[in-house]
Amino acid sequence: MADRNVSSQAAALELMYLIGWSEGKNLNVNGGNDRAPKRDWIIMTYAQCLFAVQDPGNANLALQFQIPE
To answer: Does the predicted model carry a pTM greater than 0.85?
Structure first.
């Protein structure tokens, strides 16, 4: 069962890592950065994730955020 003591910020960060992984982004700060996303991708994807986590009933609205490649 999921830990219910996780903050929405931590859940959004984990969701961002899952999305990054699924899109082939290298979010590992200990490795090389040849596939690392740009700053705007990180910020906008995290914002999208935070919105979805804080308002899951309207998570589909987060899909309207403009996420750079």
So the answer is: no
